[in-house]
Amino acid sequence: MQNISTVKKRIMLFLISMSIFLSVLDLFIVNVAIPKIRVAMHASVADIQLIIVYYVIGYGAFLITSGKVGLKYGHKKIFILSMFSFGVFSLLCGLAWDIHSLNIFRLFQGISGAFMIPQGVTLLSSIFVIEEERRRAYSIYGAIAGISSVLGQILGGILPDLDFAFGGWRLIFLINVPIAFIVGILSWGVLVEIDRKRDLKIQPLSQLVMVCLLVLLMYSLVTGADYGWTTTLLLVLVNAIICIVLFLVIQFKNYKKSINVLIDFKPFTYRTFAVALIALVFYSLVQDSYFFIYANHFQLKLDYTATQTGLLFAFQGVGYVIASFLSLKFLSKYKERFMLFGLLLMIGGLVGHYWLLSREYILFYEVALLLFEYGMGCGVVLPSMFTYALSSLPTDITSIGSSLYLTLQQLSIALGVSIVGQSYFGSIDGHFNSTVIMIVLLIMTGFVFLISYKRRLSN
C-alpha cells in the first residue's frame, strides 16, 4: 500500500468517500421529500415514518457485523458488492408500486449502506498509512459527509417539485443508481484488497434475530400509535419480545463458550464512553425527528414548496458544517462545556422555531437564520460527542466502540422519529408537544454532560 502514487490515492479516496456520500444523502434527501411521497402513495403517518425508520434500522443493525464480514471475505469485495446492492435497491425504491414495497426496499437499502461504510473506513486506513495523510483523508471523508447532508436537503426539495413523467419524488432514489454503478465498476479496477481473516467466525443467527426484533418492535410501535393496538399488532409486539429474549440467550451462550458475541460490552467499562452513549441516546432521539417534523410543518402548515423547504434546511446544513470544523479546535480545551454550549444553541433554536412559526406573518430569512443557529448547535454537539466517546478507549477496542456508538445512534434515531412524529401528528397542538419533547430530550443530554463535568472536577 505504501507504493501507491499520490494521484491514485486521491482517486481511491474519492471512490471510497462516495459510500458515505450516498448513505448520508439518502437519509437527508428523504426527509424533505416525505410530504410529497405521502400524497403520491396515499400513505398514512405510520407509513411515512417507516420510510425513515426502516432505512435507519437496516443501517444500524448491520454496522457491527459488516466489518467482520469484510475482514473475512475481503473489504474491497464487500465494498463493491454493497455499492452495487445500494444501486439496485435505490432503483427498486424509485420504481416502488406502493408504500409497503417502498419501505421494504428502504430496509435493504439501509443494509447495503451498513456494509459500505465500515469497508470504506478500513480501506482508507490501509491506503493512508502515514498519520498526517490519514488524518487529512479522514477530514476530507468527514467533510464529504457534511456536504452530502446539505446537498441531500436541497435535492430533497428540488427533485420532488420537478414535473417528472411518473412522480418527481422518485428521482430522489433514482439519482443514486448511476453514481453507485459507476463507483462500483471503477472501484473494481482501482481499489486494492487487503489481508483477510478467513477463519473468522460470523454469528449469522444472532444478526438475523437482532434484525427481526428491531423490525417487529419498530413496526408495532409506529403502527400501533397510528392505527391503535389491534390483536395483530399485539402479536407482532409479542414476537418482538420473544426475539429480544432469544437474542439475549444466544449472546449469553456464546459468551459462556468463549465465542465472539455480536455485541461486545468491553467499551462500556470506560466511564467517558458510557457517559457519552447515555447522552447519545437522548440526543439521537431528537436528531432526525427535527427534520421529519419541520419538513412536514413547512409544507403542510405553512404551504412552503418542497424546494423552499430544502433551501431552508440547507441553512441548517451550512451552520452544521461551519461549527463541525470549529469543534475540532475547542473540544480539547472546553470538553463537556463546549457541548453544553452547543445544546443551548439548539434549545434556543427550537424555542425560536415555535415562537416564530406561531406568528401570523413569517419572513423567509427569519426562519433561515433560526435554522442556521440550530445547525450551528448540531455541528458543535454531534462531532464533539463522537470524539469525546472514543477518546478514552484503547486503540485495540476503538473499532468496537465506534461500531457500538454508530449502531446505538441509528437505533435511537429510529425510535425518536416514532415518538416525536406521533406527538406531532397525534393532536391539534402537535407542534407545541413535539417541540417540548425535543427540548426536554436535549436538556437531558445536557444534564448527563453536566454531571460528567462536575464529577471530573471533583476527581
From TrEMBL:
Q: Name one GO cellular component term.
A: membrane
Q: Name one GO molecular function term.
A: transmembrane transporter activity
Q: Name one Pfam family in it.
A: MFS_1
Sorted keywords for this record are: Membrane, Transmembrane, Transmembrane helix, Transport
Instruction: Report whether Membrane shows up as a keyword of the record.
Output: yes
Q: How does it sit in the membrane?
A: Multi-pass membrane protein
The portions of this protein that span the membrane are 12-34, 46-66, 78-97, 109-130, 137-159, 171-192, 204-222, 228-252, 273-293, 313-331, 338-356, 362-382, 403-425, 431-453
Major location category of this protein: membrane
Which superkingdom? Bacteria
> What is this protein's name?
Drug resistance transporter, EmrB/QacA subfamily
User: Which organism is this entry from?
Assistant: Myroides profundi
Recall the taxonomic lineage recorded for the source organism: Bacteria, Pseudomonadati, Bacteroidota, Flavobacteriia, Flavobacteriales
